[in-house]
Amino acid sequence: MEKTTNQRAWFLVLPVLILVAFSSIIPMMTVVNYSFQDSFGGNEFFWVGLEWYRELLRSERLWDALGRQLMFSSIILLIEIPLGILVALAMPKKGWLASLCLVLIALPLLIPYNVVGMIWQVFARSDIGLLGRVVTDLGFSYNYTQDAVDAWVTVVAMDVWHWTSLVSLLCYAGVRSIPSAYYQAAEIDQASRWSVFRFIELPKMRGVLIIAVLLRFMDSFMIYTEPFVLTGGGPGNATTFLSIDLVKMALGQFDLGPAAAFSLMYFLVILLVSYVFYTVMIASDKAEAGQ
Amino acid sequence: MTKRPLPSLIMLAYLLFLLLPIYWLVIMSFKPNSEILGAFTLWPQDFTLGNYRTILTDPSWYMGFVNSFIYVAMNTVISLCVALPAAYAFSRYRFMGDNHLFFWLLTNRMAPPAVFALPFFQLYSSVNLFDTHIAVALAHCLFNVPLAVWILEGFMRGVPREIDETAFIDGYSFPRFFTRIFIPMIGPGIGVAAFFCFMFSWVELLLSRTLTSVDAKPITAIMTRTVSASGLDWGVLAAAGVLTIIPGAIVIYFVRGYIAKGFALGRV
User: Fold this and answer.
1) Using CB atoms, which residue from A3, A13, A263 is nearest to B101?
2) Domain range annotation of chain B
3) Which value does ipTM take for this structure?
4) Lower CB density within 10 Å: C or N end of chain B?
C-alpha cells in the first residue's frame, strides 16, 4: 500500500514515545551510568572508565554463561522448529476439532512462567512427580537437582513443552493461508506428501518461520524464570544462563558496576540479533509485495 | 486428500505431552499433602477441596490474584490507548525517522527484563511508585506497547486506504473517523492485541516481583516466596497454579478464531 508523507503523524506517535522513553530510556541511562562507575554502599560513586568491561570480558563467568546460553538456544531451536512444523501440519484444518486443538495447544503459552517452572518441578521430581517416578521405576537414575545432565534434559523438555506451541501456531497460520487450489493442483500432478510440503507448504511458511526462529531465539536467549524456579541455576552453575547470572549479580550481590556492564553487553547482542531480524522481515515483506 | 492416520497420531501424542504435566498439577491440587508426599497415586484417593479453600479464604493468597488482575487490566488499557494512534501513523503515513522509530520500539520488546530489573526498581522508588499497581503496569508497557503497535499495524495495513479517504471527504474529522469508523473495523485486531498484552503481563514474573513488596504483590510472586519458605505446601501451591491457568484458558477461548493469526503478529 502506498503511504503518504505526513510529518504530523509524529503527533500520533508521541504518546508511545513518551511512555517508552519513561520505561526504557531513563532506566537504560542509569545502567550506562553505573557501568562506568564503582559504588560504595550504594551512594558514593567514582569513575572507573572501562574497567568493568575489561574485567568482565576477561572473567570466565561471563563466557561460561554465554556458552551455556548459546548451547541451550541452539538445542531448543533444533527441537522446537521441526516439531512445531510437524504439529502444525498434523493439525485438523477446520471444524470444532480444530478449535479445540488450537485452544489446547495455546494453553502452555498462557501459563505464568514461574508456574511453568513449578509444573515441571512437581512433574519431574523423583519423589512426587509422575515423570520422575516413572523414569526411576524404569531403572534409570534420574534426579534433576543433583545431576547436571538430568537438569539440562529437564530444562530443555520444559522449554519444548512451553514454547513449541508458539512455532506450531505460527506455522498453522501460514499453512492455513494456502489456497486449496494449490493442493488440488498437487493432487492432479500426483505429487508425493513430501513434495507438497517441500514445494507448497514450506515456501508459504517461510515468512512466519523466520518470525518463529527469531522470536524463539531471542526469548530463549533471555530465559530467566522457568529455569530459575526449576533448578535455581544449578546443580552448581550447570543451568545458569545469562539472565540468571545477571540477576544474581545485580539483585543478589548488588554489584552495580559489573552488572550494568554485563547488562549493556547483553543488550547489545540482543540488539544486533533484533536488527538482523528486522532487516530480514522487511525484506521478506517487500519480496511478498513484489510477487 | 485421502485420510491418513499419521497426522492424528502425531497430534494425539503431542497433546498428551502437553496435557500430562497439567493433569499432574490439577490432580495434585485435589490431594491433601499427606497423599502427595506419602503415596504415589494417579488419581486423588482422598479427594479434597481444602487447598482451594485455603487460597480463597486467606487474603494473603487471594489478594495476589486481585493485584495481578489490577495491574494486568491497567497495562492492557494503557498499552492499547497509546498503541492505537501510533499503529495508525505507522500503517498510513511516511514521516521522518519512521523506520528507525519502529525498529527502536521493537528492540524494547526484545530487551531482556533482567537488564531492566534493577534500574526499574530505582526509578520507581525515586518517584515513590514502588509497590503500586501502576508501577508494574507501566513497567510492563516496556514490552507490551511495542508488541501492541506491531500487531495493530499488521491488522491496520489490511484495511484499504479508500475507507479513510471516503470518510474524510464525507466531512469526518480525524478523531471522529478514528473512534466511530476505524476502531470498529479493526475490532479483531484490537482483541488480539489486548489478548497479547494480557498474556505477557499475566505471565511475567521478574519485573512484577522486583517492583512490589506487599500492597501490590502479584500471585506469581507469592507463589515463589512460598517455594523459598521452609515446609512446602505442595497442595496449596498446585491449587494456586491451577487458578493462574484458568484466566488464560478463558481468554484463549474467546479469541480462538484469531490466535493463529495473532501469534503471527497480524502478518500472514
Assistant:
1) A13
2) 1-48, 52-263
3) 0.82
4) N
